[in-house]
Amino acid sequence: MGDIKYKISQPGKGEKSLKILLGGDLGINNLEDLTEKFRQIEKDYSEFEISLNEVSVFDLSSLQLLLSLKKTADKHKKKIKFKLDLSKDSIELCEKAGFSKILKNL
Questions:
Q1: What is the pLDDT of residue 44?
Q2: Whole-prediction pTM
Q3: What residues have CB less than 8 Å from 48, skipping those under 6 apart?
């Protein structure tokens, strides 16, 4: 199990969104930790932006987590924005599994 790179930036002056930078191992072995962190963030903030950068492990469970975050935010009338900088291999994995449309709609 690799490490998760996780950084939170509070909204600056004139900004509304909490910014979350994620990288490293976002695979299934780390999802429990990520899920718990996101539950707390979702409780405390109404608008947030999640940026994925320098991701070493991204699998279908990672995609499922992102989709779940989007659906939960929508359900609770919260704004969420994703900036995904994924490797070619990760994008191909999603495409081959039939999830390219979901990835594009995040």
A1: 84
A2: 0.84
A3: 17, 18, 19, 20, 41, 42, 73, 78, 79, 80, 81
